[in-house]
Amino acid sequence: MAHRIVVLGGGFGGMYAARALKRKLRDTAEVEVINAENYFVFQPLLPEVGAGSITPGHAVSPLRFLLKGVSVRKALIDSVDFERKVVIVFQGIQRRPTEVPFDHLVIALGQGVDLSRMPGLEEHALKMKSLEDARRVREHVIEQLEHAQVTRLPDTKRGALTFTVVGGGFSGVETVGEMKELIDRSLRYYPEIEPSEVRVLLVEYAGRILNEMPDRLAHYATRHLAKHGIELKLNTGVASATHRQLVTTEGEVIDTRTIVATIGNAPLPVVQRMGLASKHGRVAVRRSLQVEGRDNVWALGDCALIPLKDGAAERADFAPPTAQFAVREAKRIAQNIAATLDGKPAKPFSYRSRGALASLGAKRGVAEVFGVQLTGFPAWILWRSYYLALLPGIATRVKVLINWLLDGLGARSVVQIRAHSKPPLRYVYFRAGDRIYDAGDRSDGFYTVISGAVEMERTDPETGEKTARRIGPGGHFGERLILGATRRKTTVRAAEDTKVLVMNRDEFLMLAESFSAFRDYFRPYMEKRGVKIPLDDGPEAG
Amino acid sequence: MAHRIVVLGGGFGGMYAARALKRKLRDTAEVEVINAENYFVFQPLLPEVGAGSITPGHAVSPLRFLLKGVSVRKALIDSVDFERKVVIVFQGIQRRPTEVPFDHLVIALGQGVDLSRMPGLEEHALKMKSLEDARRVREHVIEQLEHAQVTRLPDTKRGALTFTVVGGGFSGVETVGEMKELIDRSLRYYPEIEPSEVRVLLVEYAGRILNEMPDRLAHYATRHLAKHGIELKLNTGVASATHRQLVTTEGEVIDTRTIVATIGNAPLPVVQRMGLASKHGRVAVRRSLQVEGRDNVWALGDCALIPLKDGAAERADFAPPTAQFAVREAKRIAQNIAATLDGKPAKPFSYRSRGALASLGAKRGVAEVFGVQLTGFPAWILWRSYYLALLPGIATRVKVLINWLLDGLGARSVVQIRAHSKPPLRYVYFRAGDRIYDAGDRSDGFYTVISGAVEMERTDPETGEKTARRIGPGGHFGERLILGATRRKTTVRAAEDTKVLVMNRDEFLMLAESFSAFRDYFRPYMEKRGVKIPLDDGPEAG
Q: How much is the pTM?
């Protein structure tokens, strides 16, 4: 019977491992890839998607198309039972678990993002990890331009036109460069925005950017970004964030509506749940890429800590989390699994980086290849060619190339296909003194204070008399929204650093319809304020 | 001082009106378009987007690019103060209202969709009105194929492979035809799906499809759809829908995970709020396109009821809601506003349809042009050429043409870029006897019964003894999710037709953290069931 090899994850590591396994083992093995999406995403192109120089569809390729002869299962991985040798998954809308048996298991799930160490960052920052993240960054940037074009409020305009990227690694540098280019090329459609009003910042905790690259190239990149009007804040971390400010570890408060966080790599919960040996938040593997203590479980790519020599201890002794390495690791795993099935010994993984490339936007880049350092346009061309060559499938290559050429010619489209709507229940952070809303503003939610306190001020429409009220944890405000009021009657400021829960009207009414306790609690509260909860005759607790 | 003309809406009516006004009046008037999106969407191409034969970005064009010399304001329209002659809008994240003054106002906001007459349809049907709707239909269809490919449950597979389109007008016929083509061309990537397992239906309340077209063409279309394996259910309406079934007015229950509703046109709330004279849910205008009772307010397109002759009474006496008419109405409005500004009389709108076109998928169409009827491939080519010519901007035309040609050659990409995630609080409908969940299923929410009743059955893991419990309105089930349980321990069926509120775990915990009443209510309830609410030490009501 054919051996069953299951690969978890369809990124660089997983996709190339499945391909190499199928080529090597042919009909002697069944190879199956399990992935949450039905496509392979070309991670290094995400900053380009974020800047609209290529469309989301062109940064991805269907796994079923790339992996001929390999089964592809689009499913969420729940857990692995290593004793029974099954992966437990959930497929589509189906809530019944499905068990997928394996003889050998390859774990290539990558890393997640955890921004929770910095208050407010998780809630208010955009990420650059998935295709959807990248798409959202582009739409968000266009939204800010649209808003800055029409607003008459100088503070609002300044916040809308300040764009912050956090993290000076490859992803952060490429994102900030591409973002600046998108803005520069779009301004012609926004006559009310002066180029001098746009502020783009890169915030990096270390003393330099592009840590993985030689000093000379990092310096070139630094100069290039500065020359293109990007402010660099080195030796600077994020202390906290709200939906309109970023506070640095230096205590500086930056008014910004756009924070893109490229930091905070963390293990994925699904990998943690597997309970495998781990180190520095990554799965500990041997040099053969076998997981410590298990001979039929393998790991590679960003989720694994892969020693490049015996007794590895320093950071440089382990494989870096790059596509270049993942592709090589995939080949080694395929060879080692084939050897193991033949009863032969697995060989240790070894590879030396051939170099590093980064695009800086505006047709410039930096590159180090086989020890040779390149900068500027040649480095950028090399960057594009390299990734074009690495793209899977000729059709995708041609499409991306055509798109790149078209992008070089005309203006970039400023179509904002879909704004990101706010979740109906959400936590929002305010700093002491922040305006929460003013009388006359649109009602955008019903607020409950979780921590901190707010100061509410109301002017009597008849006497002109002002009354103020402080609302602390557990207190509510903004309840007139529930009546269907579209405008605020009061002005609310954060008296302290404050965390609130904001709820939309529809959800409030759903809860009032569904929960008698919720209604009973709010009825006297609302009646005191002259607000009758609609649907008050909902079901009673049965 | 230049006259200020404000156009509400950037669809066919609004965009062409703004264009014609600017061309006609040049610097003697300021023309401004206010639209919720920053792009013009080419409505007739939505079924093609829904089938992936063109990408969403190519069915739209930036308004700023189409409307040179016209101001474009991306904003939500709140209301119009006709006395003070201002439009009140909300811009971007800004919650302070902005007033936009006008001398003349053109209303071109189109129509909305209201499916609430049929229980469950609003909650469980996909629409075909916006670009986002169309994109979602495509992703949903691919999701069903992915699921059918891997499931081992025959019922689930049948539901996933049954696709229903409601409404036999242009939009419904084109959607069902394009959808069938998408499925047929994708099946080669899904070896586990037999073509005979796929069922595609078109449900139409009237006795025929394409009501606006001559009988002969409607018959051709009917035969074409049948030949391509599309089931037609005429004289059939929708009685109700759940997330896995559609019940027809004939009492037939169709297991289907996909319902696309192209019916239910209804006035938009923002237009209703204006309080203008209306008839059949549309703004009543005079033959000059001036709104009844107001000389400086004009309306056109789908939102207006436009008489084509004096004393109009029959349906045929009014302009049909098509792009062809909207474009002509736009020209008439521009001429009439120019005349009014010159102190000259406005002229009545009159236009006779030049014909009608519909695509049927699989490179076939029907067309009636200047009285000549065409069917099949020539009609389809005519359809494409006509819309290509109507597309605004050469760049867009070239892009769409290239895409169409590319689509004709290779396979269609089955990349499913983004699944639609369920809202965190949602109403779900079940029919009596429906399975809600089984023991061992994934926990997908905390349930509260709004109306109807469910039957819960639990098997004691030690004794094997079965206990049953009926839960009526106001009762809850599925609370173990709150503990973080990922699997169900009980089996739940709908005992009657039942409506429930389903809430995700994160939102439950947010509410428990924020509302002491919510916690106090649930604490004893949960403790009885051995569930301790995490974060139980949240803030107390202040």
A: 0.86
